[in-house]
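tool_call: predict_structure(chain=1)
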Amino acid sequence: MILKTEKIIKEWTDYNKHMNVAYYIHVFDIAADVMLDNFKMGGESAKKDKKSKKCYEKIKNYCKNTYKRFR
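tool_result:
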């Protein structure tokens, strides 16, 4: 299942053309919104049911593990 595709823009990369960590968080945040919307658990559901899902933990763990690998 493809949720969304986008190109990485130049401003999101460093001198080695690697994506900066802050933009990984941004991309994961967008992907989480798209995924939750596809499963009817996104913004509209949050408004209707007065509750929402929390995806921060996955983003935080990804960044923490990525940072450890490159230290």
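agent: The mean pLDDT is 78. Proceeding to next step.
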